[in-house]
Amino acid sequence: MLNLIACEWLKWRNSRMLWLVLLGALLPGALGFFIQLNNSGAFEWGNLFENNLFILTMLMCPALFALLGGYLFAREFQERTVNNLLTGPHSRNQVLTAKFIIAIPVLFSVILLSFLLTFGTGFLFTSEMPTLAVIGEAVGKYGLLFVLEYALLPIAAAVALLWRSYIPAMGLGVFAVVSELTIMQSRFIMYYPWSVPLNLVTHAAPDYNNVSIGVTTMLIAFFVPLLFIAWYFRRSDVHSG
């Protein structure tokens, strides 16, 4: 199993998709910088982190994570190497498990780099360090964002495996962003998987912020497609064509 995980990591390390990890951290950081630059009020570390979290949650993570997840699970189909992958001694479920494990550092890198970039950007506006309370709150929200966005990975994986391409997963990400903008101010915000992180992390609609409903929504969004792809990948004909 460790050899399988190492193999998946080597494929990611040599992939040009890793540039998207850097881009996914840079764009929200740059947008947050310009928002702060045009802010005539006094600088506050909390506002800087909140702006970055809002951009990540509403725009970047739904689209980027769907694309990266789709690529991770459909790469062998795109490159017609899936037969080589499945002729090894590992079961198909082990192959899926390795991909989900590798997705953790890949997706977490986007969140971590964005946090570090935002932290560094703050010193362009002030020489004072943020308080421990501000840093602790920010770290907690970035961690929560990662957990919630990772929970949506099985949906992108299911789409990529069904169509054997990461292009539909990319389309799913775009749809998630557009639909999220529509639902974020409605009473259904905690019933829609892509808008739940927006409300739990940034409190975009505090009147509808029901944690128990949001957690239930995310658990369903994670486990239902996860069980489906475990069944589908194990039983379906996955030849590379």
UniProtKB/TrEMBL annotation:
Organism lineage: Bacteria, Bacillati, Bacillota, Bacilli, Bacillales
Keyword field contains Transmembrane: yes
Domain of life: Bacteria
Signal peptide: none
Protein name per UniProt: ABC transporter permease
Pfam families: ABC2_membrane_4
Species for this entry: Paenibacillus lignilyticus
Segments passing through the bilayer: 18-37, 53-74, 95-122, 142-163, 170-191, 211-233
UniProtKB keywords: Membrane, Transmembrane, Transmembrane helix
